Amino acid sequence: MADDAVPRVPPPHEIIIVPPPEHEDHHALLQQCIQVRIAVFVTEQGFPLEVEVDEHDPTATHFLLRLLPSLEPIGTIRAHKVESAGGSYYKLARLVVLKEYRHYKFGRNLVLALHNWAKVHARNSGVTDYVKMVCHSQAVRADSPGAVGFYRKFGYEEQGDLFDEDGEPHQKMVARLSLEE
């Protein structure tokens, strides 16, 4: 069995939800999320710093993946609810895991944590059938296979044509998560 085929045991870790703005730890934990995003999107992938922090950060729900016992931040994801004439949905965004930790499938754990949160949030809002999730997935680039295949594993399907977001090709993807037990 090749070294790459050996299952790797992930280091001890936790995923927490950044508490609301009135909580004393909110600012510090949100800054940790943003620093991890900057390390991946800006430093590693070359996206402009000025687009990384946006108008959704203050109101979105942020998840922070960190190592234990050090509490070192190594990944994050966020979501916010969008209300539109066609109905509401949850927008999954800003999923990142530091490069040296990607082989542990932490991205999967972050998506599943966000999906579980969205289901609870939707049920608490009176939704009984399904919750609609939307993301803008990075598409294939010269130096990256993109993330479309990753999101397909969670039931996301491509919708529409590729479009430019922050200077790179992206694909709108939509999933409907059943709320039935």
Describe this structure in words.
The chain contains three helices and eight strands; from the N terminus they run βαβββαβαβββ. It has 181 residues and is α+β, with helices and mostly antiparallel strands. A hairpin with a 2-residue loop joins strand 7 and strand 8. The longest helix has 19 residues, at 26-44. 23% of the residues are buried.
DSSP E strands, number: 8
Question: Main β-sheet: number of strands, strand sense, barrel status?
Answer: 8 strands, mixed
Radius of gyration, CA atoms, in whole angstroms: 17 Å
Instruction: Report the principal-axis shape.
Output: globular
Mean pLDDT: 91
What's the SSE pattern?
A: EHEEEHEHEEE
Fraction of residues in helix: 10-25%
Class computed from helices, strands and strand pairing: alpha+beta
Number of discrete helical segments? 3
What is the percentage of strand-forming residues? 25-35%
Unreliable spans are none
Distance between the termini: 39 Å
Per-chain topology:
Blueprint: E1 13-17, H1 26-44, E2 61-67, E3 73-84, E4 87-97, H2 106-124, E5 130-138, H3 148-152, E6 157-158, E7 163-165, E8 168-178
Parallel strand pairs: 4-5
Antiparallel strand pairs: 1-2, 2-3, 3-4, 5-8, 6-8, 7-8
